[in-house]
TrEMBL record, chain A:
PANTHER family: PYRUVATE DEHYDROGENASE E1 COMPONENT BETA SUBUNIT, PYRUVATE DEHYDROGENASE E1 COMPONENT SUBUNIT BETA
Domain Transketolase-like pyrimidine-binding: 4-179
Record bears the keyword Oxidoreductase: yes
Cofactor dependency: thiamine diphosphate
Organism phylogeny: Bacteria, Bacillati, Actinomycetota, Actinomycetes, Streptosporangiales
Record keywords: Oxidoreductase, Thiamine pyrophosphate
Gene3D superfamilies: 3.40.50.920, 3.40.50.970
Protein name as annotated: 2-oxoisovalerate dehydrogenase subunit beta
Automatic annotation (TrEMBL), chain B:
Protein's name in the database: Pyruvate dehydrogenase E1 component subunit alpha
Keyword Oxidoreductase: yes
Gene3D superfamilies the record matches: 3.40.50.970
InterPro entries: Alpha-ketoacid_DH_E1_comp (IPR050771), DH_E1 (IPR001017), PdhA/BkdA (IPR017596), THDP-binding (IPR029061)
Span of domain Dehydrogenase E1 component: 48-315
Keyword Magnesium assigned: no
Cofactor entry: thiamine diphosphate
Keywords from the UniProt entry: Oxidoreductase, Pyruvate, Thiamine pyrophosphate
Length: 324, 363
């Protein structure tokens, strides 16, 4: 076992992927000498060279567009988008090209491209550096969308994403980059499309992914002191969803709350609420409740503690669920 | 040039031309080409056959057999000249109008029709032909082509990439990003811009204040304007640019100065925005007539040859028509196929539910 931060775990996972397969490339702004603004690619260019760890021009559409071309030539590019709010110039290439090209070719083409996106708030950043754009991508057929929440998953999930023959949008919880945990570098991880129960409980299920998993675990610990036994499920994969684990959990607990940083309105939680209602209707003791951001642009950082779901807002929703 | 003046009637001074509209061979100080009689006849055949496929496709659309068609009429020389400059190892990235290049890459024309008939979104294997799928979003493919060229660099392969786009596409961010990428990575790529003067209804003046080929210098690589209706010049200029790319000299922008003789697509009505005079002026620059005149004048082909090609074209038109009409409609389950490379729980569930629902009608 090794103690790693989440950022370092990603770094080790990328390193392992590059060692395993000479076709794996890393590309993005400042990923080379600097090692990325979050140091996720630290040292990779030094060890694998400038042809495999590519400092690109400052143009996100170009990063994803050329990654597609490299994939067509047999490479497996891992693109870094520096911050969530900067993925939108690349959204055209991701949505109109990357997601659709395998279907367009009737399966002749595989596009094993990973697009890594540091996401979420909580770091006191300026505008465009704290967003949660996952719903834009889960709504696009042809993409797989995953989010890691802890160092051990980060290490294995990035390797699984690189091995996957489909395009993968890979969300990284930027405020958890510096969280440390024990990582077993030899242990195989869960398959990429599986959810995990990170805290078993009997009374209510909290669904979360990425940065909100830790918040939910803290909320569950606090609730325990009040005598409530909350289960926390880390979705890990947003598209596809591991419905088996989710349904089983809610059928046991009878209540659930979905937590994410993104705005609640037509957010990912809306899909979860609908699906849980369809599949668990007779098991539900209360409607599926959602906790998330407001239907506004992300606020200035002095206000983000009010905007972001925290332990108290999660517990408030838990109280409302039990009040039904 | 004002917006109302016929475009390109006076040939721009920098134009590379090796064959005049009257079929006269002319010399150019920087570009030359040696073609055997057989090679010229073969180019002529290509030009005639792709025009025939195109005419058949327009007719099929008019009869309701295709949803839409983007005609290449007038651009045959640009496409055949550049397409025949490619080696097997080179890779081409088309727009949705490169039917002539597809012909050069041995893509069955009926496969092109599948997309416009709506039976699929593409459906040929790009790797089998080194001809990528048609790209409909304007300019997106330029970045794919540069990425592919960067792959060629990393493979150390003796090959280059060519990417096609139009005058309108030069305003797209992706095209400009692709110029930057190609330049800084010195990628083995040829940017082949068919300036057909019109982006649907918008004339070139809406896209650029300077000749398009001059854009290249700002990005740090050479640009050249070629007579896009001169198949010899298109072949010579593209061949040189590809060779430069293969030899590590980086990208070239070729502006093939041509004219879209037809509508943008079969849904378009160019009489709403352009003058008949302009079309008449360009008819005199027809890419096929000049090769025919050249063959005649130099006694490289006789009447029998031309009749034979016409007969071959008619047979091809009939064949394309009959096989287009025979294209089977896809089964509903095809909606779910090839979206992902393997199992996908959500899609698998939706497919099963929908097929069960459909089966309910069959009981």
């Amino acid at each position: 076992m090794t103690t790693l931060t989440l950022a370092k775990a990603l770094n080790e996972g990328l390193r392992r992927s590059m060692e395993d397969d000479s076709k794996v490339l890393v590309m993005g702004e400042d990923v080379g000498k600097l090692g990325g603004v979050f140091r996720v690619t630290d040292g990779l260019q030094k060890d694998f060279g400038e042809d495999r760890v590519i400092d690109t021009p400052l143009a996100e559409s170009g990063i994803v567009g050329t990654a597609i071309g490299l994939a067509l030539r047999g490479y497996r590019p891992v693109c870094e988008i520096q911050f969530d709010g900067f993925v939108f110039p690349a959204a055209d290439q991701i949505i109109t090209q990357l997601a659709k090209m395998p279907l367009r070719s009737l399966g002749a083409l595989k596009l094993p491209v990973v697009v890594r996106i540091p996401c979420g708030g909580g770091i006191g950043a300026v505008e465009h550096h704290s967003e949660s754009p996952e719903a834009h991508f889960t709504h696009t057929g042809g993409l797989r969308v995953v989010a890691c929440s802890n160092p051990a998953d980060a290490y294995t999930m990035i390797q699984e994403a690189v091995r996957c023959d489909d395009p993968v949008i890979f969300f990284e919880p930027k405020r958890r980059y510096w969280d440390k945990a024990e990582v077993d570098l030899a242990a195989p991880g869960l398959p990429l499309d599986q959810a995990r129960i990170v805290r078993p409980g009997r009374d209510l299920t909290l669904f979360a992914y990425g940065p909100m998993v830790k918040t939910c675990l803290e909320a569950a610990a606090a609730a325990e002191e009040e005598g409530r036994d909350l289960e926390v499920v880390d979705l890990r994969s947003l598209n596809p969803l591991d419905m088996g684990v989710l349904v089983d959990s809610v059928q046991r607990t009878g209540r659930c709350v979905v937590v994410h940083e993104a705005p609640v309105f037509t957010g990912f939680g809306a899909e979860l609420a609908a699906r849980i209602s369809e599949t668990c209707f007779y098991h539900l003791e209360a409607p599926v409740l959602r906790v998330g951001g407001f239907s506004t642009p992300y606020p200035p950082s002095r206000l983000e503690e009010y905007y972001l779901p925290d332990l108290d807002r999660v517990l408030d929703a838990v109280d409302r669920s039990f009040a039904f | 040039m004002t917006a109302d003046a016929p475009r390109g009637v006076d040939a721009p001074p920098e134009l590379v031309q090796l064959l005049t509209p009257e079929g006269e061979r002319v010399e150019h100080p920087d570009y030359d080409i040696e073609l055997t009689a057989e090679e010229v006849r073969s180019l002529y055949r290509d030009l005639v056959l792709v025009r025939r496929v195109d005419l058949e496709a327009v007719a099929l659309q008019r009869q309701g057999e295709l949803g839409i068609w983007a005609s290449l009429l007038g651009q045959e020389a640009a496409q055949i000249g550049s397409g025949r400059a490619l080696t097997d190892a080179d890779m081409a990235f088309p727009t949705y109008r490169e039917h002539g290049v597809a012909w050069c890459r041995d893509v069955d024309p009926v496969k092109l029709l599948g997309l416009f008939r709506g039976v699929n979104h593409g459906g040929w294997d790009p790797a089998e032909h080194n001809f990528h799928l048609y790209t409909i979003v304007i300019g997106s493919q330029t970045l794919h082509a540069v990425g592919y060229a960067m792959g060629i660099q990393r493979d150390g392969a003796e090959a280059a990439t060519i990417v096609y786009f139009g005058d309108g596409a030069t305003s797209q961010g992706d095209v400009n990003e692709s110029f930057i990428w190609a330049s800084v990575f010195n990628a083995p790529i040829v940017f082949f811009c068919q300036n057909n003067q019109w982006a649907i209804s918008e004339p070139l003046e809406k896209q650029s204040k300077i000749p398009l080929y001059k854009r290249a210098s700002g990005f740090g690589f050479p640009g050249v304007r070629v007579d896009g209706n001169d198949v010899f010049a298109c072949l010579a200029v593209t061949r040189r640019a590809l060779q430069n790319a293969r030899e590590g000299q980086g990208p070239t922008l070729i502006e093939a100065f041509t004219y879209r003789m037809g509508a943008h697509t079969t849904s378009d009505d160019p009489t709403r925005y352009r003058l008949a005079d302009e079309l008449e002026a360009w008819k005199l620059k027809d890419p096929i007539e000049r090769v025919k005149a050249y063959l005649f004048k130099n006694e490289l082909a006789d009447q029998e040859f031309f009749e034979k090609i016409d007969a071959e074209a008619d047979a091809l038109g009939k064949d394309v028509r009959s096989r287009c009409l025979a294209l089977p409609d896809p089964r509903p389950e095809a909606i779910f196929q090839h979206v992902y490379s393997g199992a996908h729980a959500l899609l698998d569930e939706e497919r099963e539910q929908y097929l069960t629902y459909l089966a309910g009608f069959e009981r």
